[in-house]
């Protein structure tokens, strides 16, 4: 009897009771393919403070490696766990699939909307008034969470007109001042969860609008005027010019003479004595949708004395400098004396 043959290099398949023997063939190495069709799998909307997973996948042979980019940070792996803080209304994420053999890569970006349950709101049915009490509430915070208040991106410094309860859930202004204007946010922290609230812009002003400058301006002399106001955030300024007089048809004119304006400062050199000019400064707080005006009437008077500034010498028609009579006489005398001595 023959001894059995060792089938170390053979595969035996049993098919319908018949044994078929095939030789093993060395498979030719396949070329790397991909990445193709990169996709990011995950929700379109997330909630601030909650963990959510996103999966990146691509058609690759051999398997691709994955790198995530989110808010300036990078992470490796097929799955990324994201915990939005609520600081932004949306998140931009990007996944890069890399074929390690071919070195080819492909990117895919995804924008996710963020729902923020935390916000700063004023107490219902309260009006914001200068030197009156005002209350801000951190709405939506977990009662067991730790709350901190921020103003304009910095930890809030409590002044003598502010009050916080033990749980920091509200911020009370005993007397609202211009310095209190700004963007207020509350931050809730519990364990590893940190939520930055939707902010509330506390506006102030415009208050104390005024135009600094003299009530009288001499013709031919420059006079400066400055418009100022207490505003938070900063107000925008504009100037409205009116001529003096009771006749409405005479109003709305531009100042006569030399005029220039830079930001809130105007420089004016009037040229018509015995006239009046009305300057009106319009200050607008665009964030609060409030505006205020201030007007100042300036009377133009005659110059107080002769102009002591040296003026350019006039030129004659030929283009040479003309001489004053006294100067010409002295020069003629000197020339005559020199001629006499020469003779």
Automatic annotation (TrEMBL):
<feature type="domain" description="Ig-like">
    <location>
        <begin position="117"/>
        <end position="197"/>
    </location>
</feature>
<dbReference type="Pfam" id="PF13927">
    <property type="entry name" value="Ig_3"/>
</dbReference>
<dbReference type="InterPro" id="IPR013783">
    <property type="entry name" value="Ig-like_fold"/>
</dbReference>
<keyword id="KW-0393">Immunoglobulin domain</keyword>
<feature type="signal peptide">
    <location>
        <begin position="1"/>
        <end position="27"/>
    </location>
</feature>
<dbReference type="InterPro" id="IPR003599">
    <property type="entry name" value="Ig_sub"/>
</dbReference>
<keyword id="KW-0325">Glycoprotein</keyword>
<dbReference type="InterPro" id="IPR007110">
    <property type="entry name" value="Ig-like_dom"/>
</dbReference>
<feature type="domain" description="Ig-like">
    <location>
        <begin position="35"/>
        <end position="113"/>
    </location>
</feature>
<keyword id="KW-0732">Signal</keyword>
<keyword id="KW-1015">Disulfide bond</keyword>
<dbReference type="InterPro" id="IPR003598">
    <property type="entry name" value="Ig_sub2"/>
</dbReference>
<protein>
    <recommendedName>
        <fullName>Ig-like domain-containing protein</fullName>
    </recommendedName>
</protein>
<dbReference type="InterPro" id="IPR052598">
    <property type="entry name" value="IgSF_CEA-related"/>
</dbReference>
<feature type="region of interest" description="Disordered">
    <location>
        <begin position="299"/>
        <end position="321"/>
    </location>
</feature>
<dbReference type="InterPro" id="IPR036179">
    <property type="entry name" value="Ig-like_dom_sf"/>
</dbReference>
């Amino acid at each position: 009897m023959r001894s059995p043959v060792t089938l170390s290099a053979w595969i035996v398949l049993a098919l319908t009771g018949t044994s078929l023997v095939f030789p093993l063939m060395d498979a030719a190495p396949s070329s790397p393919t991909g990445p193709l069709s990169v996709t990011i799998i995950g929700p379109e909307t997330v909630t601030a403070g909650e963990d959510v997973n996103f999966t990146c996948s691509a058609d690759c042979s051999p398997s691709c490696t994955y790198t995530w980019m989110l808010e300036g940070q990078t992470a490796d792996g097929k799955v990324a766990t994201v915990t939005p803080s609520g600081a932004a209304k949306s998140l931009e994420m990007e996944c890069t699939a890399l074929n390690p053999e071919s070195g080819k890569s492909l990117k895919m970006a995804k924008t996710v909307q963020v729902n923020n349950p935390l916000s700063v709101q004023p107490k219902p049915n309260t009006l914001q008034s200068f030197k009156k009490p005002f209350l801000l509430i951190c709405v939506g915070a977990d009662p067991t969470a730790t709350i901190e208040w921020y103003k304009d991106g910095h930890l809030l410094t409590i002044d003598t007109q502010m009050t916080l309860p033990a749980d920091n859930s509200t911020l009370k202004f005993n007397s609202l001042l211009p310095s209190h204007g700004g963007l207020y946010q509350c931050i809730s922290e519990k364990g590893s969860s940190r939520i930055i609230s939707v902010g509330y812009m506390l506006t102030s002003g415009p208050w104390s609008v005024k135009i600094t400058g003299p009530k009288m301006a001499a013709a031919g002399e420059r006079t400066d005027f400055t418009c100022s106001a207490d505003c938070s955030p900063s107000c925008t300024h504009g100037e409205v010019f009116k001529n003096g007089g009771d006749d409405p048809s005479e109003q709305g004119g531009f100042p006569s003479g030399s005029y220039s304006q830079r930001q809130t400062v105007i420089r004016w050199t009037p040229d018509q004595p015995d006239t009046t000019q009305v300057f009106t400064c319009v200050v607008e707080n665009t964030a609060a949708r409030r505006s205020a005006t201030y007007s100042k009437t300036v009377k133009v008077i005659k110059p107080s004395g002769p102009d002591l500034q040296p003026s350019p010498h006039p030129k004659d028609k030929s283009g040479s400098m003309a001489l004053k009579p006294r100067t010409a006489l002295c020069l003629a005398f000197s020339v005559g004396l020199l001629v006499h001595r020469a003779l």
